[in-house]
Specification:
CATH architecture of the largest domain: Orthogonal Bundle
Number of domains: 3
Strand order of the largest sheet: 3-2-1-4-5-6-7-10
Number of strands: 10
Strand content: 5-15%
Helix content: 55-70%
Structural class: alpha/beta
CATH topology of the largest domain: N-(1-d-carboxylethyl)-l-norvaline Dehydrogenase, domain 2
Bound molecules: NADPH dihydro-nicotinamide-adenine-dinucleotide phosphate
Order of helices and strands: EHEHEHEHEHEHEHEEEHHHHHHHHHHHH
Largest sheet: 8 strands, mixed
Number of helices: 19
CATH class of the largest domain: Mainly Alpha
Length: 472
């Protein structure tokens, strides 16, 4: 008998936890996984929730177990597997059933899937989910793209399973077609920048101030009670305080300094470049991950080039205080850039993205959740059309307070050869953004010199050419 109200395909880390979350919220859920052993494992571990779980060995049984019109969440590896799942499901589903791709899809694939499913009678939703394993189980942040009418149909279950910030669900419809997956991509891009800047600050503490991991953990713990309060700062404090059982040393000291990436950071950068909106902090973070992966080359370079001689350093507490300020200022850059990229995409794709709502649904459940996001939500509510977060009273004020800290850290790091690419890019961004008279007048002149591209003048309309090389 078809008693399930919703289905989940894919019982990996995210799908399994999402399905349990759905059952936990009183919904009957049907589940299916390509590899049947995983489905059996899932069913065996469902415990008290078993009554609300129908584990299916075949896709046919799975579809038959859900009451029409069926909402079906696909939570499998992004890319080709999603297309394969849709192709397999399509002949089994009926008109008005909703396919929800909840993986980390490239929003351009999501747009294509919307087009491909047009006229099929099926409804499609591209849904970004953030929060990792724990979020999926206890309440993630959910970013929905598709027809608003389709969202209305699944809103009760999605808001029920989402994280709550002071009682408000962290799930929302953000716009048509690829809007949800685009916003999730930028969320991840910002996450890259956040993590990179925290790692840079850790690097300054470790390599400049010679602080050990437990001492750094105490600094991050203290920060988590102030304006830097966020999930990533909390877990950093925790990570730094954990000892390795095998060696008795801080576990962070035993971990290889090379981090992987799956694509969302890179996509954020590609899309920002395509739209001509700089996202330099995200770009620096993505590049830093790529450089981190070049371990052998870095070791060879250190041998050949050496490290710069350490300069006299300031009082440790002064540096630590500045590091906190630098992190805050760097965060303003990363978020200002991420939101500016979303504003441009909103225009380009006609999504009408609700910036304040995006900040609101990122306040809990997701990896970048923080006190800071509550302030961003307020800033966008008060200034919905502001082109850059840095121009709002709250964030221009915050920049004024933290600017010198960022400046001193970037300068000190540069003098000591300590890499702080994301923080430095944040500073470069603000220094460029805040200067009314820039230097592109010279670039216009150079372009005209070698390519006759022409230039505009401050004191006259129209296109002009220079008297280069004695010509007039
Ligand atoms: P896992 O690696 O834990 O699980 C992958 C799932 O995809 C398995 O169920 C696997 O089935 C299935 N799968 C892989 N290839 C195919 C295929 N060709 N056809 C059908 N099913 C296939 O992944 P996650 O749960 O971590 O990730 C799932 C999605 O969620 C991804 O898009 C990921 O980017 C996204 N995501 C992940 C987060 C995380 O923190 N892990 C956070 C937010 C989003 P099988 O058992 O048969 O191999």
């Amino acid at each position: 008998m078809a008693e399930a109200e919703i289905g989940v395909i894919g019982l990996g880390v995210m799908g399994a936890n999402l399905a349990l979350n759905i059952a936990d919220n009183g919904y009957h859920v049907a589940v299916y996984n390509r590899t049947a052993a995983r489905t059996e494992e899932f069913a065996a571990a469902a415990g008290d929730l078993s009554d609300r779980v129908t584990a299916c060995a075949t896709l046919e049984d799975f579809v038959a177990a859900i009451r029409p019109p069926r909402p079906v969440i696909i939570m499998v590896k992004a890319g080709e597997p999603v297309d394969q799942q849709i192709a397999a499901l399509k002949p089994l589903l009926a008109a008005n059933d909703i396919i929800i791709d909840a993986g980390n899809a490239n929003f351009r694939d999501t747009m294509r899937r919307f087009t491909e499913l047009e006229g099929s009678g099926l409804t499609f939703i591209g849904m970004g989910v953030s929060g990792g394993e724990e979020g999926a189980r206890r309440g993630p942040s959910i970013m929905v793209g598709g027809k608003e009418e389709a969202w209305r149909r699944v809103e009760p279950v999605l808001t029920a399973i989402s994280a709550k910030y002071q009682g408000e669900p962290c799930a929302a419809w953000l716009g048509e077609n690829g809007a949800g997956h685009f916003v999730k991509t930028i969320h991840n891009g910002i996450e890259y920048a956040d993590m990179q800047m925290i790692a840079e600050v850790y690097g300054v503490m470790r390599d400049h101030l010679s602080m050990d991991a437990p001492t750094m953990a105490a600094v991050f713990s203290a920060w988590s009670t102030g304006p830097l309060d966020s999930y990533l700062i909390d877990i950093t404090a925790e990570v730094l305080s954990v000892q390795d059982a095998a060696t008795g040393r801080p576990i962070v000291d035993m971990i290889v300094d090379a981090a992987g990436q799956k694509g969302t950071g890179r996509w954020s950068v590609i899309e920002s470049q395509m739209m001509g909106v700089p996202a330099t902090a995200i770009e620096a973070a993505v590049a830093a991950r790529s450089l981190s992966a070049m371990r052998a080359q870095r070791a060879q370079a250190e041998k050949l080039l050496g490290l710069p001689r350490q300069q006299d350093r300031r009082d440790d507490q002064q540096v630590v205080d500045d590091l906190g300020k630098a992190l805050l200022a760097g965060k303003v850059a990363a978020y200002a850039q991420g939101f500016a990229v979303m504003a441009a995409a909103s225009q380009e794709f006609g999504w009408n993205l609700p910036m304040a709502t995006i900040a609101r649904i990122w306040r809990a459940g997701c990896i970048i959740r923080s006190r800071f996001l509550d302030e961003i939500a307020t800033a966008f509510t008060e200034n919905p059309d502001v082109p850059n977060l840095a121009l709002t009273p709250a964030f221009s004020g915050l920049l004024a307070e933290t600017d010198m800290g960022l400046r001193r850290i970037v300068a000190e790091a540069a003098l000591n050869g300590l890499p702080v690419p994301a923080l430095a890019s944040a500073l470069g961004y603000f220094d460029t953004y805040r200067r009314g008279r820039g230097t592109a007048n010279l670039i216009q002149a150079q372009r005209d010199f070698f390519g006759a591209h022409g230039f505009e003048r401050l004191d006259a309309q129209g296109e002009h050419h220079g008297p280069w090389g004695g010509q007039s």
